[in-house]
Amino acid sequence: MNDKSFRFRMPAEWEPHRATWIAWPHHEPDWPGKLAAIPWVYAEIVRILAQHEPVEILCHDSTVHARASEALEAHDVRRDRVRLHDVPTDRVWLRDSAPVGVLDRAGAPVLLDWAFNAWAKYDNWQHDARVGDAIAHVTGLPRETPTRPDGTPIVLEGGGIDVNGQGRILVTEEWLLTDIQVRNQGLGRQDYEQIFRDWLGATETIWLGEGCVGDDTHGHIDDVARFVGADTVALAVEQDPADENHPRSMDNLRRLQHVAASGKAGPLRVVTLPFPRPVIMEGTRLPASYLNFYIANDVVIVPTFNDPNDRVALNTLADLMPSHRIVGIHAVDLVWGLGTLHCLTQQEPAPLSARKVN
């Protein structure tokens, strides 16, 4: 999409990145009893990503900075591709608290710093709400705060949206249109579609129904459906009728099939991926999903769960994205924090002027 009538365009995740942003784990209540294991998972994530693009890491304080350095050194991470920044955070889920990178009409990156209120659920979000200012300071990129016409900041999280970079966006009704964990009181379907058009360059909003079981964000799209190409959506589908994810995923499949059949905005191919076995910790079902993968430059990191469907998911994604290296990351401990790889990363797009011309 090259429509100059739009102020901004959100690139697809597979478009070139300047860097990936993450925040180093430090908040023990997010992983009760398991925090000690999580930094080592992060170090492995950074080791893989740093082979493909720079990684910028926010560290809550000097102690967290030192621990991050130690873990990265132990995992033999390319330090020439990694920078650590002392920036206070409440949690590590930068997909939601960090700004969303878009391109302006000239192809230059701009940071859209949506308001953040911890998913309208938690009361400790004040540090996370200032992450956008810190990233803008480090990068020197312009920062915009999306607002309603009356000037009220718009609350939005990056995990709730997925785009193909050519005008289509995926979201769920559960996230934005129900009366639980309300982000923006008074906004309805048409209001959000206008917001996506104005700020992300999205001309077609595809509304799915619900997210997956165990998702405490109440319906983020990045556990159930993701674009893997301009006209291809990967969808998590649970085939077992006895599983709570079955009716949710079948409804989402019907919705996508309807969009594909209508052909109003061009072709749409739907490819299904399984869910892993239910991952239970202390009686709580966790939001384990292969769809929480992250696409970086020439590599896709995919959460795995010691399940036979790991192989199915990895092979399917390899077929769908043949130009990318597909790497599984063990996420059984990680998902105890109610998020995995996509939740903890946020891409910074490369400017058009820096992209290779083939």
Characterization of this structure:
This protein is α/β, with parallel strands linked by helices. The chain has a single domain, classed as 5-stranded Propeller (L-arginine/glycine Amidinotransferase, Chain A), CATH 3.75.10. It is built from 10 helices and 19 strands. It is globular. The model has no long low-confidence stretch (mean pLDDT about 95).
Short description:
The protein is of the alpha/beta class and 358 residues long. Helix content is 26%, strand content 22%. It is built from ten helices and 19 strands.
Tally of alpha and pi helices: 10
| CATH topology tier name | L-arginine/glycine Amidinotransferase, Chain A
Mean of all residue-level pLDDT scores: 96
The CATH top-level class label: Alpha Beta
- SS elements, strand count: 19
- Give, in spatial order, the strands making up the sheet with the most strands: 1-5-6-7
The level of helicity is 25-40%
Record the SSE blueprint.
Elements: E1 8-9, E2 17-23, H1 38-49, E3 55-59, H2 62-74, E4 82-86, H3 94-97, E5 100-104, E6 109-112, H4 118-121, H5 131-139, E7 143-144, E8 162-163, E9 168-172, H6 173-176, H7 189-200, E10 204-208, E11 225-229, E12 232-236, H8 245-262, E13 269-273, E14 280-281, E15 284-285, E16 294-296, E17 299-304, H9 309-320, E18 325-330, H10 341-344, E19 346-349
Parallel strand pairs: 2-3, 3-4, 6-7, 9-10, 12-13, 17-18
Antiparallel strand pairs: 1-5, 2-19, 5-6, 8-9, 11-12, 14-15, 16-17
What labels describe this entry?
about 350 residues, alpha/beta, L-arginine/glycine Amidinotransferase, Chain A, four-stranded mixed sheet, 19 strands
